[in-house]
Amino acid sequence: MSSLEQQLTALEDLDIEDLRQRWREFYPGQAPGLMSLELLRLAIGYKLQEQVFGGLGRRTQLGLAAFKSGSKTGRTSATPLPKSGTKFIREWQGTVHEVLTLENGQFAYRGKTFKSLTLIAKLITGTHQSGPRFFGLRKPGSSKAQEHG
Q1: Is 0.90 surpassed by the pTM of this model?
Q2: What are the structural domain ranges in the chain?
Q3: Is residue 126 left, alpha or beta, with left meaning phi > 0 and alpha meaning psi from -120 to 50?
Q4: What is the spatial distance between Cα 83 and Cα 103, in angstroms, rounded to a whole number?
Q5: Which of 1, 106, 128, 137 is 20–30 Å from 85 (CA)?
Q6: How far apart are CA 137 and CA 121, in angstroms?
Q7: How many CA atoms lie within 13 Å of 66's alpha carbon, on the beta-carbon side?
């Protein structure tokens, strides 16, 4: 059994006070008073796994932050993120360009990794372009304000 598995299993044996003490190892402040035993175990277990496997990607964090704030105009795009493995093919000035969506929400183009389609569109065209629009994820002429409507 791995160290992570041992730590996760050990959470089952902790009482509410012990779990609240473990909570403070991972989160600022006290655990909410009404938080159940099970939810404390899940939250601490998540943090233990995060230490081993890493946390959420930047795009997911931004999406959750916008959702949490109730913002419909947050920094995240209204354009849905393409699934991992999605390939975009775009012809530009006689050259075919292929972009692959990676599992971490980034994009592969010509052997390099990019954080956004917009960076790739700018590299291809030499001017600032909306990456989602350039690759056909948004209709020409649509704006974020219209999409959030």
Answers
A1: no
A2: 3-53, 87-139
A3: left
A4: 8
A5: 128
A6: 13
A7: 15
